[in-house]
Amino acid sequence: MAQRAEITCAAQNGRHSTYERITHIGGGGDKPWKLTIKEAIKLVDSGKWRFFVVRGDVEVKVEAQTSRTGCRYLKTANDRNEPFDMLTLPDFPVSETVESA
Which Pfam families is this protein grouped with (predicted)? Predict the structure, then answer.
């Protein structure tokens, strides 16, 4: 059975391409975690983890996709092609010590 994890924050690098802008995702509340986007995509592709975000009290599945240019990225099931929901997540809290999962 896949591990479920809510994504509550995302680090961005400022790139113009929305597919390449997110570099890390994280969450965890009491036990914070942080993954590179490449690590997270591997976990989704392998079926080991299922990520989601919460939008208005509703869990929305996060999927791994490939852009037209071949870039792998994460997006929510609500998004069409670009990861707009993911791009609206806040950055990592400065005061938290975050460990890789």
Answer: DUF3892
